[in-house]
Write a structure and sequence with these properties.
- By secondary structure, the protein is α/β, with parallel strands linked by helices.
- The chain has one domain: Rossmann fold (3-Layer(aba) Sandwich), CATH 3.40.50.
- The protein contains seven helices and seven strands.
- The chain has a seven-stranded mixed β-sheet with strand order 3-2-1-4-5-7-6.
Length: 225
């Protein structure tokens, strides 16, 4: 992902600022709640006091859930508009989260976190930058810590299910591409990149559209070696 490091706000940040008001609501409607379910699945791997980092947190529905468990949460996003919406949620519940508006590539707290989550974030990158971001994010996790990814799944199942999933997920990608939020690319097989990032796969939970349709979303847990 190209990000302007000068004083001018990056175009991508401006695009997400404009999308902040509808971003979470649209994902809930489009996924019939399964995006939110894939994020909630991660709570079982957190405990009070854990240092948890959310990269590309957006409006932060998942970070809010983690804060409610007693985790010490840090959120990074390039969109101040997204972080402002998260701040409003925190104020309503009297919760505190560290909010940092910066490029995730610039966040450099090496081996600081017990858990790093990159939920529906790695897919905003083209393949080469996605792999680079995954590797960078893994460096922020302490040895033995958890690396969490909730995201769209690679199409699977019988040919009809695979075709439906491909068309269904690509329709969302095309919509977000048209408003400048994501590039067009294939659905990523994240565990295939874990070895290069010094991660090992521990858990995968699949989420079906409407709970009985084709697999469309997933929650992945890796462990830092």
């Amino acid at each position: 992902m190209s990000e302007d490091q000068g004083h001018k706000k990056p175009q991508l940040a401006r695009n997400y600022d404009r999308a902040a008001w509808f971003y979470e609501a649209s994902s809930t409607i489009f996924s019939l709640g399964q995006i939110q379910a894939s994020k909630r699945d991660q709570l079982q791997f957190m405990k009070p006091g854990d240092n948890v980092l959310y990269l590309g947190v957006g409006a932060g529905e998942d970070a809010l859930l983690a804060a409610r468990t007693g985790a010490k949460v840090t959120c990074v996003d390039i969109s101040q508009g997204m972080l402002d919406r998260l701040q409003l949620k925190l104020e309503k519940e009297n919760l505190e989260i560290e909010l940092i508006c910066q490029s995730a590539f610039d966040h450099d707290r090496t081996e600081h976190y017990d858990i790093c989550a990159t939920n529906y974030f790695l897919n905003v990158f083209r393949p080469d930058d996605m792999a680079r971001m995954l590797n960078h994010a893994a460096t922020l996790v302490r040895p033995g810590g958890k690396f969490l990814i909730a995201d769209v799944a690679v199409p699977q199942g019988n040919p009809l299910a695979r075709a439906f999933t491909f068309l269904y997920l690509k329709s969302a990608m095309l919509s977000f591409w048209l408003i400048g939020l994501v590039p067009l690319h294939e659905n990523y097989d994240y565990p295939a990149l874990f070895a290069d990032a010094n991660l090992t796969l521990e858990h995968v939970e699949l989420f079906r559209l409407a709970k009985f349709g084709p697999v469309a979303y997933q929650s992945i847990v890796g462990r830092k070696l």
